[in-house]
Amino acid sequence: MNRNAGKKWLALLLAMVMVLALCVGCGPGEETEEGGGGGETSSDTIKIGFVGPLTGDAAAWGIAQLKAIQIRVDKCNQDGGLLGKQVELFYYDNREDAVETVNAARKLIENDGVVAILGPNNSICAQAMSSVCDDYKVPMIATNTPLEQITLDDDGNVRPYVFRAIMIQRAYVAPLCNYLYNDLGIRTAAIFYALSVDTYVTFAQQFRAEWEALGGTVVAEETTASVDDVDFRAQLTKIIETDPEIIVSPMTYKQIILMGQQARELGYEGMFGGCDTWYQVSIPVEAGPQLEGCIAIASLDINSEKLIPIQEEWLEYWGEDQTLRDGGTDPYYGYDAWKMLEAAINDAGAADSDSIRDALENITDVEGCVGLLSMDPETHNPDRELALVTIAPNEDGSDGYYYKTLGTIYGGEITLFDE
Amino acid sequence: MINGLSIGSVYALMAVGYSLIYSLLSFTNFAHAVAVTAGAYVSCYLFMYTQPNLLLGLVASLLGGALVSVLIEILVYRNMLMKRNSKKLYLMIAGWGISTVAENLIIIFISSISQFYPSELTSMGSIQLLGSSIGKVDVIILVLSILSMAALQSYISFSRDGLAIRGASHNLQYASLMGVNTDTLLIKVFAIAGVLAGIAGLFMGIKYTAYPTLGSVMTNKAFISAVLGGLGSLPGAIAGAFLLGVIEVFVAGYISSALRDMISFGILILVLIVRPSGLMGKSSEDKA
Lengths: 419, 288
Known about the structure:
The complex is a heterodimer. Chain A is α/β, with parallel strands linked by helices. Chain A folds into 2 domains: 36-167 and 305-384, Rossmann fold (3-Layer(aba) Sandwich), CATH 3.40.50.2300; 170-298 and 387-416, Response regulator (Rossmann fold). Chain A contains 14 helices and 16 strands. Chain A has helices at 3-25, 30-35, 59-78, 98-111, 123-136, 170-183, 198-214, 233-241, 253-265, 282-291, 308-318, 322-326, 330-348, 353-360, and strands spanning 45-52, 86-93, 116-118, 140-142, 162-164, 188-194, 217-224, 246-248, 271-274, 295-298, 366-367, 372-376, 381-383, 386-393, 401-410, 413-416. In chain A, the strands form 3 sheets. An 8-stranded mixed β-sheet of chain A has the order 7-6-8-9-10-14-15-16, with helices on both faces. A 5-stranded parallel β-sheet of chain A has the order 2-1-3-4-5, sandwiched between helices. In chain A, a hairpin with a 4-residue loop joins β11 and β12. Chain A is globular and about 70 Å long. Chain B is mainly alpha-helical. Helix content of chain B is 74%, strand content 3%. In chain B, α2 runs antiparallel to α3 (54-83) and α11 packs antiparallel against α12 (260-274). Chain A binds chain B through residues 55-60, 195, 222-226, 228-231, 233-235, 237-238, 254, 257-258, 261-262, 264-267, 282, 285-286, 289-290, 326, and chain B through 3, 7, 104, 107-108, 111-114, 116, 119, 122-123, 125-126, 132-133, 135, 207-209, 211-213, 217, 249-250, 252-254, 256-258, 260-261.
């Protein structure tokens, strides 16, 4: 047999091996289907999974969230574990990519045998993972993922194994519009957002609908193509020409900072507003003067005194808190997701996926990082408190700006703090 | 318009670097992005320890960009080009790989989060011109970019090294036969390209922050500019860059920002179909 023929046979053999591996790797195994649940506990441990970005542009948030969960797992194990068993945490990097997220979820379920998954922290990745978790019947708790469609299948039915730790985006938009229109008396708004992110697009649609229902006017709507875009002068020039009282803008924190700087350079004198994407520590630091007085609805009150013990615990455990600060709200959502899972396992008295799922659907008054959490069994979305925030100069008179909490929001009702 | 020219001037700094290297070695150096990013990070971190001073930042960035560019030439391209006589395509792929590795090294050892320049540089205010507000930083960037390119043009036109570069751009081997030390010449060319890239990195960092993918995002535009103007032609690269900057701003402002990149790359494809050598480029052979 000559060398070329030998190479051909080798190539054919390798191709057959790859095809075989592909077939074996696809779909849930028989054990998971017949067992009625994805993972089961081993005799000694309860296996939990985490998926999030640990490398790439979003690594700061993913790492912070993972670290928050690791603290909780270690504390839990020190206290005897769950149901008398130690918790094992498995985690994979999804690089904030939907395909990687699906691969990571499969690995956690098939290779590691986890009974539940925490994360991811990105709506698009969570949407990709949701069908996997339903197929394998392993419950997931997505963390900072306000996109409504995550917990819904293509027919609009609630996915049985998909939950989230954050409120859906619609819950932010209505109170924002109400506050701007009724409390501040604003009547004209412009919307500016990045097209490449579904949550931004739906926010813009929901804002317009709510705003116009109240009687407000959207005087301009401009977009930028991608979250990587950094120059918005052309779009801002068009917006400023329509003289809006407020520019409402769901974008990344970097884009928000650059937008604020560029808009002021172009002579814009009005307000800015937004939602949870505005809640990042860099924003008041880098663009405090430009964005002072902005109004945003945040997913939790970063100034809450209830966060202090969590922050102190973090500092003690990790020896630094820069990661915590860089992570924004992500570490706190990791904390809450763990708390929800822990409560579900304790309520269920069992740590198989189906029992956890059933219990998760009915958790009530779980002590989260800033308040009580309860799951709505109809939607798999939690009821929790939001915060109304602005950027203000430091209260102690020192140079700099910070997020000042103006009030809290629960059930759509705003409670303003007294000045 | 000023914004378009300002952006175009930064694209020009990067595009000239592309064209300079291409004119000698006939391959597109995607590792050029690393020099841009290095320029941005060097000055950004310098300002954490010093008072924000544009001149100081300029010096630091151009030195940082030059150093990175020369290191890449010595450690990678020289080995591939001189010792192994690698095909141009492999050089291009190596450059691409270096760019990706560098981005991830920054993410691992520094951070994925954008690093902001001091507000004294980012928020200089604006001036009123013909009824429009124009950022002072845009005007400064435009002026300094033009001065940098004018300095380069003077160097290439009137110095002995410039004469050697012009000669080598026609044929590197013949230049070597004429007594030009091509090893030293390539170091100088990469250093010049790195200086321009570093300056571009500083300006991009001031306008848009320093982040790991700054170089690759921006040098894609510079690459389009260089092709538009003609790879290997420095005046062509400058013209292409200004044209692209103005087109982008006008498309984003008057048509749609969503179409901006589509139109930019569409122009690139059109130029490659209709006039592959670009507006002012030399003939195309073995392009990589």
